[in-house]
Design a protein that fits this description.
Two copies of one chain form a homodimer.
Chain A: H1 7-14, E1 31-34, E2 39-49, H2 60-78, E3 81-91, H3 96-113, E4 116-124, E5 128-138, E6 152-157, H4 162-170, H5 178-189, H6 195-200, E7 208-210, H7 215-226, E8 229-233, H8 241-244, H9 248-257, E9 264-269, H10 273-283, E10 287-294, E11 299-302, E12 308-309
Parallel strand pairs in A: 3-4, 8-11
Antiparallel strand pairs in A: 2-5, 3-5, 6-9, 6-10, 7-9, 8-10, 11-12
Helix pairs in contact in A: 2-3, 4-5, 4-9
């Protein structure tokens, strides 16, 4: 195998497959997608940089999975059905083994969600992955950040904080025993976007966001967009098996400020509680009620006994001084 | 002014404007775009890396312009009307001056073409710009690479090779006199995407591509997709004032193998020659007939006297060994 592949060979060999739902896929100046009456397109782009979003030397198959997963998570948070995506890739070199593994991880998750790679760009440069996803949602049913209303209940899926617990171990902030590490590592390296839950919540939930920057930080985006406040019971946030065994302060930090789990945080009217639980069961994902949306501003964080906690769990900001 | 801005402040300060044509713009997990019956979406993504697509320390206003221009050029080559775009940006630091200039260049060209920034992502990392553009084209009218037919005439817009002439000066491959440099530098740094020409050619041209990798190389993509060959008269390719004064071999190299001009290369039936010329006049762009599409494979390159030339003008490949 050659050490270096031409750009066009590279796309053809590792990423090109016949267009199915797209009218025209990889290989022209643009892909062509058919518009559908009564539907809206949900579009999002995410960039992953080596050393910031993933470690240098990261497993390429996991990286392919994760790069698409974090983008699918944005569609999930809108209640959109994944449809097509584009991949722009800067690589230090065209390494066939790396490309084969990366595309296997990427296209494996794509197939699992019925989303098609329709275009892209490859260039030489410091490793950088930029994906753009397109999904479809019926007119008026998108789960928007600005739709939370006082009186809504606040919900979260899964067990937030697992990915942050794994990251802390890899960074040397703490040491996990092998069974605990084994439980949380896949949550960091191969997150499962909550697409089915987002779809099932259409017409039930008001606002939704995916937890990428930390639960409280992402809640803050919803509250700011909606002009509302929230009361959050820190002890109501479900903990995974490994996280439940951690010291209280570490557990809370991981749950409330850890990103990268890509769980859904959403609000729904109290009278739709049963519908929420049915939607979650249908999607095969656990959900927990962790608080309420209230009039006013800001977050009142408390524990199960009702004692107020300082909500000083900074979320992840790529440009903050830290 | 702070040296470092938070990610969310950064988007809000430099890039956020109220959504107009989009249902929902920057600030949610996804942007929302309304589907339109009878229209297709043309979607493309391009990644620009420092040191490869532009020099380190490049003027940020020109860079903002160029990053969008090369993406608009992909829409032009499909005959699509620009509609919306997303910007993902990796930056070594959040420098307010750089960001202000970059966004002015970017949004200035966006306004000129009526295309709206609807979403994006910012992160810290080696400078990398990834844009995704979305345009609209009526069903069946897209200018595809695979639509060239034997008997079509081959056309190119503008004066290809100017950008490559400027690049050679900056790289020290040759020295240009100040007036010549002044003529070709804007062609490299601030290319004008041929959007109006692409729109005017709908229903007239068969195949189209934008010349980003070199005229002969990009022609090769059209011929491969269409299963056809071409005869090209090298002397029929128009030369700009500076290029016309260069030695013959350098002129031909720049014209036939130089990328980065973002002119349109397209084919149209011979009987539509007048319609092509009217479309070009309407778009305010010069076009020249430089050859013919023929049955068979490959390119026969010749000069004005009919003498065959070796078509050894390699186009730009980001992963080839050079």
């Amino acid at each position: 195998m050659p050490d270096h592949l031409g750009e066009f060979d590279l796309i053809a060999r590792y990423f090109r497959r016949p267009a199915s739902s797209a009218l025209l896929g990889i290989g022209d100046d643009c892909a062509l997608l058919q518009a559908q009456a009564g539907m809206q397109w949900a579009v999002s782009t995410d960039m992953l940089v080596e050393g910031r979003h993933f470690f240098a030397g990261a497993d390429p198959r996991q990286l392919g999975h994760k790069a698409l997963a974090v983008n699918l998570s944005d569609l999930a948070a809108m209640g959109a059905q994944p449809h097509a995506f584009l991949l722009a890739l800067a690589l230090p070199a065209a390494d066939p083994r790396w490309l084969g593994e990366f595309s296997a991880g990427l296209l494996g998750l794509a197939d699992a969600h019925g989303i098609e790679l329709v275009g892209g760009d490859t260039t030489r440069g410091p490793l950088n992955l930029c994906l753009t996803v397109l999904g479809l949602v019926p007119d008026g049913l998108a789960l928007r950040r600005d739709a939370a209303r006082a009186g809504d209940e606040l919900w979260v899926s899964g067990t937030p904080g697992d990915a942050r617990l794994a990251l802390g171990h890899l960074r040397g902030e703490w040491q996990l025993a092998p069974p605990a590490l084994e439980q949380v590592l896949p949550r960091l390296h191969a997150p499962q976007p909550r697409v089915a839950l987002g779809l099932a919540l259409r017409g039930i939930a008001h606002a939704a966001i995916d937890v990428s920057d930390g639960l409280l930080g992402d809640l803050g985006h919803v509250l700011q967009a909606s002009g509302a406040g929230a009361r959050v019971d820190a002890d109501a946030v479900p903990a995974g098996a490994a996280l439940a065994q951690q010291p209280l302060q570490r557990r809370r930090s991981c749950q409330l400020a850890g990103g990268d789990d890509y769980e859904l945080l959403f609000t729904a009217p109290a009278q739709r509680r049963d519908a929420v639980l049915r939607a979650a069961a249908q999607a095969g994902v656990g959900v927990a009620r962790i608080g309420d949306i209230v009039a006013g501003r800001g977050v009142l964080l408390h524990d199960a006994a009702g004692r107020e906690l300082a909500p000083d769990y900074a979320s992840f900001d790529h440009f903050a001084d830290r």
